[in-house]
Amino acid sequence: METATLQPLAAALPPSPSLNHRILTATTVPHFKQIHAQILRSGLDISAPFLSRLLALPLASSPSSLDYALSVLLHSPSPDFRLANRALRALSSATDPRWTLVAYGRLRRAGLALDRFSFPTVLRAAARVRGVAGVVAQEVHGLAAKTGLDADPFIQTAVVGAYTALGRAAEGRMVFDRMHHRDLVAWGVMLDGYCQSGCYNEALQLFDEMKSSGVIPDRVILATILSACARTRNLTSGGAVHSYIVESNLSIDAHLQSALISLYSSCGSMDTAQRLYDDTSPKNLVASTAMVFGYAKLGKIAVARSIFDQMTDKDLVCWSAMISGYAESDQPNEALKLFNEMHLLGVKPDQITMLSVISACANMGARDQAKWVHIFVDKNGFHQILSIRNALIDMYSKCGSLVDARTIFDETAFKDVITWTSMITGFAMHGNGRSALAVFDHMISEGVKPNGVTFISLLYACSHAGLVDEGRRIFESMIQDYRLEPKHEHYGCMVDLLGRARLLQEALEFIESMPFAPNVVVWGSLLGACRIHGDVKLGELVARRLLELDPNHDGAYVLLSNIYAKASRWEDVREVRNLMKNKGVIKEAGFSWIELNGHVHEFMMRDKCHPRSNEIYGKLDEVVKELELVGYSPDTATVLVDLQEEEKREAILLHSEKLALSLGLIDSKKGSSIHIAKNIRVCNDCHTFMKLASKVFEREIVLRDRTRFHHYKDGVCSCGDFW
DNA sequence: ATAGGGTTAG
């Protein structure tokens, strides 16, 4: 390849065959230095071929040899701009874009002007270097304008690309709109630019404008648009593009095929995606990754895994897809295992992989693992990236270390809305409603605009802390002051807030006042409140409404049977259970896990799978006896089924968190803290049990349930028994 | 110039 590009240059050389040959075969900087000395002695100006060769070699990608190359250039007998521009372009082809910018800076300072072929080079480099490059892009744009070159379509296209790559899509669009001649590449850069900046709807709109102005899209443009549709889960627009492709008889290459597969798998249409994928031969990495992603998103994690396992030559992206698949389908342990495997194979993660890994760690709530991931993040230079810091804040909150979360939060100079919201969520989860509200006030005083998620967090903070008036005020403020439209989730939070505070009638009226039909989330919140307060009549009504909306809503059946059980209506309990059985509705099984010395131990109810099972059950007996001495008596009121009292007692004593606690007590000392996580809500009896255990055994017990943390200490829980 | 993976809540 290099020989080919050097042919014309070699032909232009003065008759000095041996020197020429030496240039073409040189491979190291010392070697080049020798030749350079020889060139200077010969008095010939053959810097151009010399530099071309020097810059084409991989060694030009190290700072010291780049330095050398530039110094040769700047000290050549007549450093003219043609040579400088050639050097710049040679440099840009194979190296880190940052050095192209360094070289550009040196050439500028030496007073060498850019030609029209170098502007795009520098702009492309600037576009690839995020962060510091905005200034460069603007400067280069200004420079092009000064020399009148900004009317050149190639330069204009590059300017559009640079702005959009830096997230300044609107500025890119302004340049694009002023272009007199737009070829397909220009359209492609603008469309892709919108996608890069996350402006997918603008991309779709521009695509329509493009078609109505009579420009015929090619495969490249169509692949870009399909990708935009995939990312926005827009099957309507995507399907239209697919039809267009079929109607126009366009041949479908691997890129386009992958884009189509990705569209359908992103939208959850796995049947169509699978059909297209079956037609693909050979299977390519991108299409396979899209399939893995699609199945994982639907929870068909085993299917995803089997495709993943069949892939040879896995790259970073498919590892990430599989890892995030596990992370998002509540298998954080598997996600971390896979990350380890990838790590051992020497595949280097990027920030996207790390976000999935951090999120997996957060969902697992494992503190030792969390620490390990944090160290990994620091060591590998990810710690300055804002999205990573945001994920870390969330991770530490969910692992029970609010202090660590707070530290990262405080040490984050530039905070975006997610940073603030994550911190608010952290306080909300730990029942610290006042701190959550204080963080919100701080956020507002810093001029950061809250979004819908921020308000969900705030309302949950109020709900978990019993701050009813504050919650009402925030809901109003969201509409009045921030002009945000409350969605189902917000109404659900409000119903939860009112319901927990025993304001059941007001909660019902609130639902009836909604401007749109309430969904399962909203009714579900009220149902939960009915269970807490034992309102059988309202609970029954709500559960029926819920089951009308979703006949397979497992939560509704469970809560309904709970309510009946609480009222000892065993006949009704049986009916509900039968109904569940007939419909094949399965109650989500409760399980708990505890991390001890870096290992995660999982427990189901009555679980005897643990290798130290005997020891654990022995400890549990002992614990129960000791707690009974201080007045504990199993609260069997919440046991769903009509069992004999003795059976009920046994059932409740074998809840998974009690097993986890027993192991925790065996393996820890007095005065230490025990961290347990559970996938569903903690029951009344376990809650009392934990409170007493914290006092009798002198441990702080931190229990994370589905939505929040309980910190038990000296017989008291941080939730104030309000959860 | 093009296709695949990501952070806050639920």
UniProtKB/TrEMBL annotation:
The keyword Thylakoid does not apply. Residues 631-723 form the DYW domain. It comes from the Eukaryota. Pfam families: DYW_deaminase (PF14432), E_motif (PF20431), Eplus_motif (PF20430), PPR (PF01535), PPR_2 (PF13041). Belongs to the PPR family. PCMP-H subfamily. NCBIfam families: PPR. This is (wild Malaysian banana) hypothetical protein.
